[in-house]
Design goal:
The chain is an alpha+beta fold. It is built from 28 helices and 12 strands. Helix content is 71%, strand content 8%. Helix 4 (83-102) packs antiparallel against helix 5, helix 14 packs antiparallel against helix 15 (317-334) and helix 17 packs antiparallel against helix 18 (377-393). The radius of gyration is 41 Å and the shape is elongated.
């Protein structure tokens, strides 16, 4: 019990903090953090502050995450009463790892935090709480994705594929289409690094189909960049540039500087491959300026590398060395293996061009080792071929021949035509120097054939392969669209079946409840008759006993007989008394069971949580069974109807009326009568018909008062109709002189009435943060005060609602309940009381 109270207080504080932060900003959040004493709340506020500072001040963001982590570390590894705090411990570690990786400050520490967050989330997903388990699964997916990103940044491609695949499995389990598409895009990128282009394009096309269907232009552009990279690697430069420039236009429009810089870098690399050096330099410099503006160290190093390569190809070796060395310093400090491998290779080529052969060989071997470690086959073969040329130039023919043959074997095996051509040329020159003319001629012919193929058949084949993959993706997109349409129809059909089943269940349940109540009433009436007969019999017997006593005075011989008869009557009286006690127990038990049935018909709080940001319900029946009731009907995924009923009487008769009203409303929903005024008109006809009301004097006038609203989530308005029950609204944007906006009901009940006009629907504008109040008249009519002779009244009730409207919903409920109990001060409750508060 104590734990539930603590959790309740924490939840209230969280809602208070969220509302407070939205209205008062970062300073207010910091103030609440300093004043808070709950560790879970402190962690959540610290992470929220860190998120607000992530883009403007990364260092401050990291400091706040560490503050939150300090309090989160108080949670132990056992999932118990502090499971929420333990979950936020995982969130804090994941947030710290992501911030460190985003700024490339310390990738080793970022990986350590990601590993810790996975350990925490793996324990939390065993928790019995469904909400905390769902949140932990999402956190687990994020942490695996973070490890994949870090592995990629450090050049561990295969490990990155493993981590991203684990994250993809969790996202599929969570059924999150956006997350699945994002991970497919990342996996496509990694497979492209390993020259597995077909698998890469399959992943890209799956992601592209989803993002285009969602009109997600930003992520569509990201996928197009990656597809452009595949086209560039295959030599289809025109297709690559088309993809890059389409993506560039989107990034420019959205001011996405990191993606804009990366795309400028890719465009420069295409122009570099085409030997259009001026265009390449322009785009590399644009990329450098953008990366420097967002403090992206890896991007800056990549820009330096490409500038160095461009200067090297123009034989401007001093400038090339300058930029390549600057890039090498950044890659080394960040532990970025791919960048180190690329810059070592290009530095080696540059050193060799100026005659520093030993240093060139050392750098090329360093790059070769890194590429072999990362599984970058194409890069490894290119470096070995460079070493072969160096050995050839230095007359080390055996080493040159060994490297060239290894390159030729692997290039032929992998289908790298350009590398095969270059290896044949080196081997032809080696054998010519050795005087082996036949072998030199044979490899020269292979070189010529490869050269011809490179610029004709093979290139056409590669482009055709890429186009085939694109055509395949279009077919897959069409199939996916058809499957999606089929799934939507199946979902609609399933929902229709569920709705029919729901209506049938409620109809049957209503009939069962009505039947049960009739049986209970019959039993009560029968027991009443038996009791009345027993009392009459007892009275007659008492009279007889008195007569017998008078006869005893005159007839002594009859005393014993009369005494025996008196004893017999006493035994009968005792037996009847015990029978009455049994009847009373049966009556009480029946009424308690009727109360359980009535409670089962009331909607659960989950129904309100789906459509409103918050709510509360005050429900005080006067007797065990209530004549007040509330009802909710989710008409579709974003529309709900809600009613508050105040039926004639209370106790068993009132309960009977309220359950009849709920049954009638549910039946009207099955007939799709959802417009509020039409619903009340039909409900009135149902009551009049059920009780045979004609307006004649002396006939039964039972009925009900009701307030009914229809709300479509996100529409900006509610539709309201009322019979004697108004609707009150408080507005979010009123910070001073708070007032209640009263929307009056039609002054007629749901029963026969001398003036029966059609009910009217009022359309009322609302916005997020507005609060709606529905209530019966029980609270306002309750007697209380010092002498228990004063009604609470409408104005006092109105002031109470204004007073509580600034509080969170749970606090409003507690305050209203406390005000009621203080008002009656231990005296009797006079009527059923129901108050329903809804926050838009």
């Amino acid at each position: 019990m104590l734990f539930r109270r603590i959790v309740k207080v924490i939840v209230l504080l969280v809602f208070y903090v969220e509302g407070y932060s939205n209205s008062n900003g970062l300073d207010s959040l910091i103030q609440v953090f300093n004043n808070s004493k709950a560790d879970t709340l402190r962690v959540k506020i610290a992470l929220q502050i860190a998120q607000n500072l992530a883009s403007s001040s990364p260092d401050s963001s990291i400091a706040w995450i560490k503050k939150g982590l300090f309090f989160a570390n108080k949670a132990n590894s056992k999932i118990g009463s502090d499971s929420t705090l333990f979950y936020y411990k995982g969130v804090a570690h994941a947030s710290l790892g992501m911030t460190l990786s985003r700024t490339s400050i310390d990738l080793v520490r970022a990986k350590a935090h990601a590993d810790t967050s996975i350990e925490v989330f793996s324990q939390v997903i065993r928790n019995k709480n469904r909400w905390i388990r769902f949140k932990a699964l999402h956190g687990l997916s994020v942490s695996y994705g973070l490890l994949g990103r870090l592995s990629y940044m450090q050049g561990e491609i295969q490990l990155a594929i493993y981590h991203y695949t684990k994250s993809l499995e969790v996202q599929i389990q969570l059924n999150r289409g956006h997350g699945v598409a994002m991970l497919q895009n990342n996996l496509g990128l990694l497979h492209a690094h390993q020259a597995n282009y077909i698998q890469a394009v399959k992943y890209y096309q799956s992601a592209l189909s989803f993002f285009e269907a969602q009109n997600d232009s930003l992520n569509t552009a990201n996928v197009r960049v990656n597809m452009g990279n595949v086209s560039k690697d295959l030599g289809a430069y025109d297709i690559a540039l088309r993809n890059y420039f389409e993506a560039l236009a989107i990034f420019s429009e959205r001011n996405t500087y990191s993606s804009l810089a990366a795309t400028e870098l890719n465009i420069g690399e295409v122009y570099l491959a085409l030997l259009v050096f001026n265009n390449a330099m322009i785009h590399f410099k644009k990329a450098y300026i953008l990366f420097r503006g967002i403090n992206d160290n890896k991007g800056i190093a990549d820009s330096y590398t490409n500038l160095g390569i461009t200067y090297s190809k123009q034989n401007r070796t001093d400038s090339a060395q300058f930029f390549l060395r600057k890039a090498q310093q950044i890659y080394t400090s960040q532990g970025l293996k791919i960048g180190l491998a690329n810059v070592s290779e290009n530095l080696g080529e540059t050193y060799y061009s100026i005659g520093k052969t030993d240093e060139a060989i050392k750098l090329l071997n360093e790059s070769l080792a890194l590429n072999n470690e990362m599984g970058r086959k194409s890069n490894s073969l290119s470096i070995k071929l460079s070493l072969s040329r160096i050995f050839l130039d230095n007359k080390q023919l055996d080493k040159a021949k060994l490297n060239a043959k290894q390159v030729l074997y692997e290039a032929d095996k992998q289908g790298y035509l350009k590398t095969k051509r270059d290896a044949c040329k080196v081997l032809s020159e080696i054998y010519e120097l050795e005087g082996l003319s036949d072998l030199a001629l044979r490899y020269h012919k292979q070189y010529s054939e490869a050269t011809d193929s490179l610029f004709s058949i093979e290139r056409v084949h590669k482009i055709a392969q890429l186009e085939a993959l694109y055509n395949l993706s279009q077919k897959q997109s069409t199939i996916s669209a058809l499957e999606k349409e089929k799934s939507l129809k199946e979902v609609e059909l399933s929902k229709a079946h569920e709705l029919i089943s729901y209506q049938r269940f409620h109809s049957i349940l209503s009939l069962v409840v009505l039947g049960f109540l009739l049986i209970v009433l019959f039993i009560l009436y029968r027991q009443f008759r038996i009791k009345r007969e027993a009392v009459n019999q007892l009275s007659q017997k008492i009279v007889e006993v008195q007569n017998k006593n008078e006869e005893i005075l005159t007839q002594k011989e009859e005393i014993e007989a009369q005494r025996n008869e008196l004893e017999s009557q006493k035994f009968l009286l005792k037996e009847k008394s015990e029978q009455l006690e049994r009847f009373n127990w049966l009556l009480t038990d029946s009424i308690d069971y009727a109360s359980s049935i009535q409670s089962a018909l009331l909607p659960s709080t989950d129904v309100f949580q789906k459509y409103f940001s918050d709510h509360f319900i005050v429900f005080f029946p006067k007797d065990v069974v209530s004549g007040d009731s509330y009802w909710a009907y989710p008409f579709d995924d974003d529309t709900i109807l809600i009613a508050l009923l105040d039926c004639t009487g209370h106790g068993v008769p009132g309960g009977f009326m309220s359950m009849m009203g709920i049954s009638a409303l549910t039946e009207l929903m099955g007939r799709k009568i959802t417009e509020p005024s039409e619903t009340l008109n039909n409900l009135r006809l149902f009551v009049i018909d059920s009780f045979k009301q004609t307006g004649k004097m002396g006939e039964q006038r039972d009925g009900m008062d009701i307030a009914l609203i229809r709300y479509k989530k996100g529409s900006g308005y509610v539709e309201y109709a009322g019979a004697n029950h108004p609707l009150w609204i408080t507005k979010k944007n009123e910070t001073e002189d708070k007032q209640i906006w009263v929307h009056k009901a039609d002054s007629m009940p749901i029963s026969y009435f001398p003036r029966m006009e059609p009910f009217k629907t009022q359309r009322i504008e609302v916005e997020p943060g507005d609060q709606i109040y529905l209530f019966s008249d029980g609270f306002r009519d309750q007697l209380g005060g010092e002498n228990f002779n004063l009604k609470y009244g409408r104005e006092r009730f109105k002031e109470l609602i204004i007073q509580v409207s600034t509080m969170p919903m749970d606090a409003q409920k507690s305050f209203i309940e406390d005000a009621f109990f203080r008002w009656i001060d231990g005296n009797d409750q006079l009527d059923d009381i129901t108050i329903l508060g809804l926050k838009v």
